[in-house]
Design brief:
By secondary structure, the chain is α+β, with helices and mostly antiparallel strands. It is 32% helix and 16% strand. The strands form two sheets. Strands 1, 2, 3, 4, 5, 6, 7, 8, 9 and 10 form a ten-stranded mixed sheet that branches. Strands 11-12 form a two-stranded antiparallel ribbon. It binds iron/sulfur cluster.
Length: 320
């Protein structure tokens, strides 16, 4: 089956992806700026990386989830030497007897959302639009693949010197224990792959479209007007109101409480129900504070022409 791609991850996409990964990581997953620089250099040297959908890959295509493991501060100072991803792929192919068809971020949050793109550029493979969590995670078994019953083994870990360890453990918990111990001996950080799986398995065992989501988040941040709030002196009300295109008068004085708007869906926004219902229709119909009748919002701040009602995909306003 010919593989079509969703988009080429060009420099603009990578910059947006870096911003989105930083948001989704919420402090986890490593630094998204250094890994952006790595990805920009790799794609300049070897060309942009195709982003593909899992549906576009043959059922039996082998996907290699991968990323950095260890202490994020160490990863900043202990650079790769550039050979790590090729060693991971070669040994995974040796262990499985199959060729790796695409890479996948083990976690989209933080620098690990970008690291596989650098690796994919260097070895000429696509990256799939999916990851293992939709966020960043602190332990190996805290991923969708584990919940779906995908075996964590065989796992491969390597470092910048060329050391390599193959792990076969009885559980994800033991993989976490042993890999963490090895990462310490590697100097605090290493590169690894766990939970290798086929495209058919990945369709039901990963968080899909998370790379696209991170890019959209990054593009939204870049396109937002105003200035981010000063974290040391946040504004009253909703801290986002100075630059939120949907802000109404209430937002400037009353901080929204975290509340349940759908089963298992918490949101802190005065207008969450309107957004979720698809009621926001942009400049002409949003509840503009600037309207003569005083009804409403800040349409002039650049609300899009239409706010689609989000599907239950988890990427609505300020969901947690
Ligand atoms: S509309 Fe929601 S996110 Fe925007 S300022 Fe008001 S409470 Fe905050």
């Amino acid at each position: 089956m010919p593989v079509t791609m969703k988009r080429l991850l060009d420099p603009d996409s990578l910059r947006a992806l870096s911003r989105g990964c930083a948001i989704l990581g919420a402090g986890g997953g490593g630094d998204a700026y250094v890994t952006l620089l790595q990805a920009l250099q790799a794609t300049e040297d070897f060309g942009p990386v195709p982003l593909v959908d899992l549906d576009e890959l043959p059922d039996d295509a082998l996907i290699m989830p991968c990323g950095g493991i260890g202490a994020t501060t160490v990863i900043l100072e202990k650079s790769e030497n550039g050979d790590e991803r090729a060693r991971l792929r070669e040994h995974l192919q040796f262990l499985t007897g199959r060729r790796v068809a695409a890479l996948m971020s083990a976690e989209i949050g933080g620098g690990n959302g970008l690291l596989p793109i650098t690796w994919a550029a260097r070895i000429g493979l696509p990256v799939v639009d999916a990851d293992g969590m939709g966020r960043a995670f602190p332990e190996v078994p805290q991923v969708a693949m584990h919940l779906a019953g995908i075996p964590v083994s065989p796992a491969v870990m390597t470092d910048e010197r060329g050391n390599l360890v193959v792990f076969r453990t009885i559980s994800g918990h033991w993989m976490e224990r042993l890999e963490r111990a090895a990462a310490v001996e590697f100097g605090g950080a290493a590169a690894s792959t766990e939970f290798s799986l086929t495209a058919a398995q990945a369709r039901g065992a990963t968080v899909r479209n998370s790379v696209s989501l991170a890019i959209r988040i990054g593009e939204a941040i870049a396109g937002a007007g105003g200035e981010p709030p000063d974290a040391t002196s946040p504004p009253p009300g909703c801290v986002f109101h100075p630059r939120c295109p949907l802000a109404v008068d209430r937002c400037a004085t009353e901080a929204p409480k975290l509340r349940t708007v759908r089963p298992a869906r918490l949101v802190a926004c005065h207008r969450a129900e309107e957004v979720l219902a698809g009621a926001m229709t942009g400049a002409g119909q949003s509840l503009g504070r600037s309207r003569p009748d005083g009804a409403g919002g800040l349409a002039a701040k650049g609300a899009p022409a239409a706010w689609p009602a989000p599907a239950d995909s988890g990427d609505g306003p300020r969901a947690s």
